[in-house]
Design brief:
Oligomer: homodimer
Distance between the termini of chain A: 49 Å
Protein name (chains A, B): TetR family transcriptional regulator
CATH superfamily of chain A: Tetracycline Repressor, domain 2
Keywords (chains A, B): DNA-binding
Number of domains of chain A: 1
CATH architecture of chain A: Orthogonal Bundle
Helix content of chain A: 55-70%
Organism (chains A, B): Actinoplanes auranticolor
CATH class of chain A: Mainly Alpha
Number of strands of chain A: 0
Largest sheet of chain A: none
CATH topology of chain A: Tetracycline Repressor, domain 2
GO molecular function, one term (chains A, B): DNA-binding transcription factor activity
Shape of chain A: globular
Order of helices and strands of chain A: HHHHHHHHH
Pfam families (chains A, B): TetR_N
DNA sequence: CACCGTAGTTATCAACTGATAACCTGTCAA
DNA sequence: TTGACAGGTTATCAGTTGATAACTACGGTG
């Protein structure tokens, strides 16, 4: 039962994916490199060897999460190149709570001078992608990002999404009845 | 030079305020109770005694930050009870980056089952406050919160605000030229 | 003035965690 | 066969850090 040997590149990618999941809970400081390592089935020192520092691993995870969002948007735009299409695509992303939570943790951690530049670049990439794919003007793109941020927070807080908690009155109000059929809302209350 | 003795309640409040500042950088796991203690000029074990656990301190800080936002909104609504007035008030809050960063960290940490309920309650309080103060309907309030979340992230990432970093082209675009005179944008580029 | 409750401290610790160093091992070319 | 490189491990550690325990001191009050 020898563990499958992967190329450094393959292991790298696998670890970044594991890092997104791990950092989603716990955030930057609250996640150990050992947790990421176990999730990928390798030893903790090997993670450090591949990425140098925990910080580099976190930034790689943030960029990976950003890339996933971008990728999903491009796929949506290939079918229909407008904001509505990207909005529907984002509904899919809401189902992957790890991704959104990782992003939100990255944004919060962006206050740290060491992480700020990279995190800002991630945010900028998303903005540019939205504009380039849809041709939306500044105001439209800003509105899209604003809605996206709200949905992201609501998703992270499990107010919307597949694994949403029991819905309280104010949550139903905030979500809005006209959205009740959208699948990103999670199971509707009986 | 005997340190000023405060009542437990006074010290409590002072520590919560210090916690907001401390947790703003570092987040939940990345901030030590000792950092909070030093910020308030007391010993670390005393912080634990007053709050029981680090987690309780964090939640108290999150609720305090929420309360500050609420308070600011109420003051604005006392003069003019509509969304525009609250929006202007929020511009003021953007200058207090610690507050926003604390909130964003709290939202991100809300994915943790132990913190989720309290964080959701904080978010709910803000939503309810906005609606009650302005009489805005669901859609208007949702739009307001969405804009608020975007501004919060932009503030935390120092893309807007008094201590904003050097502005890159996409940032100027995203912020929008029509906002150039607003003081929450920080110093305009020459 | 002696007492006592409240505000605070110092001493201490067990557990954790990122990082380093040294070692192991499969595979493939010559 | 052999060597050598890439992929990976075990051993180890120094620095933290939340929390507990035991002790100290101020200030009002009978």
């Amino acid at each position: 039962m020898t563990r499958t040997r992967l190329t450094a590149e393959e292991r790298h990618e696998q670890l970044v994916a594991a890092a997104v999941t791990a950092f989603a809970r716990g955030g930057y400081a609250g996640t150990t490199t050992d947790q990421v390592a176990r999730l990928a089935g390798v030893s903790q020192p090997y993670v450090i060897r591949l990425f140098g520092t925990k910080q580099a691993l976190f930034l790689a995870a943030a960029e990976h999460a950003t890339g996933r969002v971008e990728q999903r948007f491009r796929r949506a735009a290939a079918e229909q190149a407008d904001l509505e299409s990207l909005g529907i695509a984002y509904d899919d992303l809401l189902a992957e709570r790890d991704l959104l939570t990782m992003l939100l943790h990255a944004f919060a951690a962006g206050a740290d001078p060491a992480l700020g530049p990279t995190v800002r670049a991630c945010f900028g990439r998303i903005y540019r992608t939205v504009r380039e794919l849809t041709g939306a003007d500044e105001d439209e793109a800003r509105g899209f990002l604003a809605s996206g941020m709200l949905l992201t927070v609501l998703g992270v807080l499990q107010i919307i999404g597949p694994d949403a908690v029991a819905r309280e009155p104010w949550m139903t109000e905030l979500i809005g009845v006209h959205n009740e059929k959208k699948d990103w809302l999670g199971p509707a209350p009986e």
